[in-house]
Write a structure and sequence with these properties.
- This protein has 256 residues and is mainly alpha-helical.
- It has helices at residues 10-24, 38-45, 86-91, 93-110, 144-149, 158-164, 178-192, 195-202, 211-221, 225-234, 251-255, and strands spanning 48-53, 65-69, 77-82, 238-242, 245-248.
- The chain folds into 2 domains: 10-192, no CATH class; 194-256.
- The protein is built from 11 helices and 5 strands; from the N terminus they run H-H-E-E-E-H-H-H-H-H-H-H-H-E-E-H.
- Strand 2 and strand 3 form a beta hairpin.
- Helix 9 packs across helix 10.
- It is globular.
- The termini are far apart.
- Residues 1-5 and 113-173 have low confidence and may be disordered.
Length: 256
């Protein structure tokens, strides 16, 4: 497993998502039009060519998308959505939105800008240039349903997989490392559910620990209820004291 050279905290990743919103979305991170137009962000602002293609899944994976830099093309990168799940993603647009945000995170956080001309993601050199460390957080807050539905990013460059795990005959050799997946999921959630608009909705008086509030917020931001719950947990607005059971933390946390 490549050892990252820089650790990014959740707060730093959220700041990167705010930078994207401030640079590309009318109203920026504080007053954007909701829901965030992730299609325009990926295709127009960042210049991704989005296609539906068959992506053979590594064993034990459900791969919704891959991202490939295309420096010789008219596009910055190709975002390939897995045609095997086209009907599923059309039926669950909130999952496709999270998937697009996830792939955008790899571009913003993980692609080495100095290597874009070579057309590779940043794993092909002898010197490993992955710059980020594993986010030390438990997966206990992720439901099995969410784990089955969230996008699994599959790097398409064989050299990348060899750098991720030199024992490439093992079953997990072709899967992105957990630290990278967690960073991309957090970035996508912060991008689609910006902090300031979320706090404004909560200031209307609804209890953020209630399931009904999660449903309402999910509808407002066009994400899944679980993404809302994880976002509220990471912002220390609620805590999950038992699976599926939440309670509100102090009002100071909520309004700060």
């Amino acid at each position: 497993m490549p050892k990252p050279k820089k650790f990014l905290t959740d707060a730093e990743i959220e700041e990167r998502s705010r930078d994207v919103l401030n640079a590309h979305v009318a109203g920026g991170s504080e007053c954007p039009t909701l829901p965030i137009d992730i299609d325009t962000l990926t295709e127009a602002d960042f210049g991704f060519k989005v296609t539906w293609d068959d992506i053979p899944d590594p064993k034990g994976c459900r791969t919704f998308a891959t991202l490939l830099p295309t420096p010789s093309d008219h596009y910055a990168a190709r975002l390939k959505l897995n045609s095997r799940f086209e009907a599923f993603l059309h039926a669950h647009p909130q999952i496709e939105r999270l998937t697009r945000g996830h792939e955008l995170a790899h571009w913003v956080l993980h692609v080495d800008e100095g290597q874009l001309r070579s057309g590779t993601l940043p794993f092909g050199d002898t010197e490993v240039v992955v710059r980020f460390h594993r986010i030390q957080e438990s997966d206990s807050s992720l439901s099995s349903e969410l784990k089955n539905r969230l996008a699994k990013f599959a790097l398409a460059d064989e050299r990348a997989y060899r750098m991720l795990n030199p024992r490439h005959n093992e079953g997990n050799a072709w899967i992105e490392p957990q630290w990278m997946h967690r960073q991309a999921e957090h970035f996508s959630a912060c991008l689609l559910v910006p902090r300031k608009p979320l706090l404004r909705f909560l200031n209307s008086g609804d209890d953020p620990a209630l399931y009904g509030t999660h449903v309402r917020l999910a509808n407002e931001f066009h994400v899944s209820k679980r993404v809302i719950q994880i976002r509220l947990i990471k912002l220390r607005i609620i805590e999950e004291y038992e699976p599926g059971q939440f309670r509100t933390l102090s009002r100071q946390h909520r309004l700060s």
